[in-house]
Design a protein that fits this description.
The complex is a heterodimer of chains A (393) and B (293). Chain A is of the alpha+beta class. Chain A is built from 13 helices and 19 strands. Chain B has two domains: 110 residues, NAD(P)-binding Rossmann-like Domain (Rossmann fold, 3-Layer(aba) Sandwich), CATH 3.40.50.720; 157 residues, Rossmann fold (3-Layer(aba) Sandwich), CATH 3.40.50.261. Chain B has a seven-stranded mixed beta sheet with strand order 3-4-2-1-5-6-7, sandwiched between helices. A seven-stranded mixed beta sheet of chain B has the order 9-8-11-10-12-13-14, with helices on both faces. The longest helix of chain B has 16 residues. Classes of the chains: A alpha+beta (393), B alpha/beta (293).
């Protein structure tokens, strides 16, 4: 199966919210695209019922966010309800590309005469949207940053949108029969409208089939929504599967922090993405392993420090914590709230704190009567925590 | 100083109570805030600054060179477009997490109109000892000849502070912001620093994600001034967003190695941590002095 995502991995920001296939199809259906009759099932009994209701052969499609679903056995075809039920046991609860699949989309099987692949991607390298179109599912090397030969690519100027020239080139170069041109044009324009309306970073139909009855049907579709725009895409927020997030990630999201779990044992937090990453790097340079990335944002409130400590302690693999804060406000206040947060959370593992910044009136003194270790240097603070954690082992 | 014309007249979008302190600090630093625009509101005064309901009204009274936008993410597009259409040549977008499709439109319009856009999510720029246009804490700066540009505010402050404490002053600091789609990139800022007579050495505070560093590496070999870089995120895993919209490694692109290799090849001095930067800068100054002698 052709997907533009794999060719465009370099433009795919990855921070976008992914939408499940059945949800994208709902959106497309509401906006005038024809999609196969079908619904989502979570048990083999439901699969049986749906297959019986649809009648005839069906497609069973795992609803996981994994590339190349077909190749890893995430899509199956069944001739009747009984075999659909049997096959569904191989999909529900199956581990597909490191994700446990919980839902199956059961759809009528569409026999296609011809297939079209088209979609839009926000390319952050050139900071513009691009239109992609292909009639081939020929597998091009994924190393290619940009599609070549078989895929047509157009840069979209926001003020012009999809132009007549682009459509003309698609018709000619992709060899679209004259009787289909009006439809294809309509689909491209409609899809672009949805792409913009929903603040998508990726929206593709891959493929759209021209079936044996001469109808155009969406067989598969992918969509990713820009995180930054979720405030005006409320419907999308509700569609997201929160269940896949772990308890720590959920708490982080609730507190407005960014959190990424890593494989080490030294918990790290600080204010500012760059500063936290730099602190992780320093941990590695000192021979330790960071347990996480946790950014409490540069303009944090002192109240949020307790949440950050709490959050790090939720990871039982953490054997020590290093806190690195660059203050734009009062260092003393931050120092006090760190001490309060650690005693309130009854922190039993070693904590090294490094605070510096704008109004640094030696916060070191404040730490003298606490269990926390203070250092004014990042390098020193990090090597201290690495050393202590190693000794405790 | 040729990075920006002296005595810029500044306009502040969304001059609410939340940003009053930033405006006071800018004024205290010598910046000329001539007006505020709070769309839809009646004309009034905030911290001694006249605020107007729309840009036209504000501009007729004052004339403006640079706009700083603190608007909500949902209003940045409206306000930035208004600013660019009015012919204002510098736009600093402090607001974080602006929808990317809005940034695509803003950047496209800015490119056509020859307008410089910093951000979204930019702390702004400061010409040390003269003017500041943004939210950076000015007390950490001291006047000198090192220009700093970065994508993450607190890490850049850290670098500036290390320089200041080692007795090395700065000429300017510019924050590009950490969003996935943003206006000026490293190479645009390097061009400004290269032309600036007060800048002798340049420090780039880089981080994983995006291609800004790689693009800069193509320009650096033709520069006459030495460049030092710090690259944060060597330990960041691929495919995960590290806080900033742009801080994500997609396959090899945007990775530490990609940036490291590109910058080293361009002759950039790579620092291991912010605390190493003053040492490298000092040795560059010594080399320069020896060459002059």
């Amino acid at each position: 199966m052709q997907t533009f995502e794999k060719y465009l991995i370099s433009t795919y920001t990855g921070c976008a919210m992914k939408i499940a296939e059945y949800q994208v199809k709902q959106i497309l259906k509401v906006n005038g695209f024809k999609v196969p009759a079908g619904r989502v099932a979570v048990s083999k009994e439901e699969v049986y019922d749906l297959a019986a209701r649809i009648g005839g052969p069906v497609a069973l499609k795992a609803q996981v966010f994994v590339k190349g679903k077909m190749n890893i056995g995430g899509i199956k075809f069944a001739g009747d309800p009984d075999s659909a039920k049997e096959m569904s046991t191989e999909l529900i609860g199956a581990n597909l590309g490191d994700t446990i699949n919980k839902k199956i989309l059961v759809e009528e099987y569409i026999e296609s005469k011809k297939e079209f692949y088209f979609g839009f991607v926000l390319d952050r390298r050139i900071r513009k949207n691009i239109l992609l179109f292909s009639v081939s599912d020929e597998d091009v090397s994924a190393d290619k940053i940009y599609p070549t030969n078989s895929i047509l690519k157009f840069l979209i100027k926001p003020e012009h949108g999809i132009t007549k020239e682009m459509l003309k080139k698609i018709f000619i170069d992709a060899g679209i029969e004259p009787e289909h041109r009006k439809k294809i044009q309509e689909f491209i324009l409609k899809l672009y409208k949805i792409f913009i309306k929903f603040d998508a970073e990726l929206l593709e139909i891959s493929p759209m089939a021209l079936d044996i009855n001469g109808e155009f049907v969406v067989l598969d579709a992918k969509m990713k929504i820009d995180d930054n725009a979720l405030f005006r895409q409320e419907r999308m927020t509700r569609l997201e599967d929160e269940e896949d997030k772990g308890a720590i990630e959920l708490k982080a999201a609730k507190n407005g922090f960014s959190y990424v779990r890593l494989k080490g044992d030294i918990g790290v937090f600080g204010n500012g993405a760059g500063l936290v990453m730099e602190t992780m790097d320093e941990v590695a340079r000192a021979g330790g392993k960071p347990a996480n990335f946790l950014n409490i944002t540069s303009d944090f409130s002192t109240d949020s420090i307790s949440d950050a400590v709490d959050l790090i302690l939720m990871d039982s693999g953490v054997k020590g914590i290093v806190i690195n804060i660059f203050c734009c406000g009062q260092c003393i206040d931050v120092a006090k709230s760190i001490i309060a947060a650690c005693s309130a959370n009854k922190v039993k593992i070693p904590v090294v704190v490094r605070i510096d910044g704008n109004n640094n009136k030696d916060p070191g003194n404040i730490f003298k009567n606490s269990n926390l270790i203070y250092s004014s240097s990042i390098k020193d603070a990090v090597s201290k925590i690495v050393e202590i954690v190693r000794l405790v082992e | 100083m040729s990075i920006i014309v002296k005595n810029q007249k500044i306009l502040v979008y969304n001059l609410t109570e939340k940003v009053v302190d930033y405006c006071k600090q800018m004024k205290a630093y010598g910046s000329r805030i001539v007006a505020g625009v709070n769309p839809g509101e009646e004309k009034h005064k905030v911290a001694g600054i006249n605020t107007f309901g729309d840009l036209k009204e504000a501009r007729e009274f004052t004339g403006v060179d640079l706009a700083i936008i603190f608007s909500d993410p949902g209003h940045v597009l409206r306000d930035a477009v208004e600013t660019i259409m009015a012919g204002i040549k510098w736009v600093v977008i402090v607001t974080e997490q602006v929808p990317l499709q809005d940034m695509v439109k803003i950047i496209s319009l800015a490119e056509k109109s020859g307008v410089r856009v910093l951000g979204a999510g930019s702390a702004g720029l400061i010409i040390v000892g003269e003017q500041k246009f943004g939210v950076m804490p000015d007390a950490i700066f001291t006047k000198g000849n090192v220009a700093v540009a970065g994508k993450s505010d607190t890490l850049s402050y850290e670098v500036v502070y290390q320089l200041t404490r080692s007795g090395i002053g700065q000429s300017a600091y510019i924050d590009l912001g950490g969003e996935a789609v943003s206006g000026m990139r490293f190479q645009n800022v390097l061009q400004l620093f290269e032309r600036d007579e007060d800048t002798k050495v340049i420090v780039m505070v880089c981080q994983i994600g995006g291609i800004s560093e790689e693009l800069a590496a193509k320009y650096i070999p033709v520069m006459t001034k030495p460049v030092v870089a710090l690259i944060a995120g060597q330990t960041a895993p691929a495919g995960k967003k590290m806080g900033h919209g742009s801080a994500i490694i997609a396959k090899e692109e945007g990775s530490f190695n990609s940036k490291y290799n590109a910058l080293v090849k361009a002759g950039v001095h790579i620092a291991k941590g912010p605390e190493e930067i003053p040492h490298i800068v000092k040795s560059l100054f010594t080399q320069r002095a020896n060459r002059v002698l």
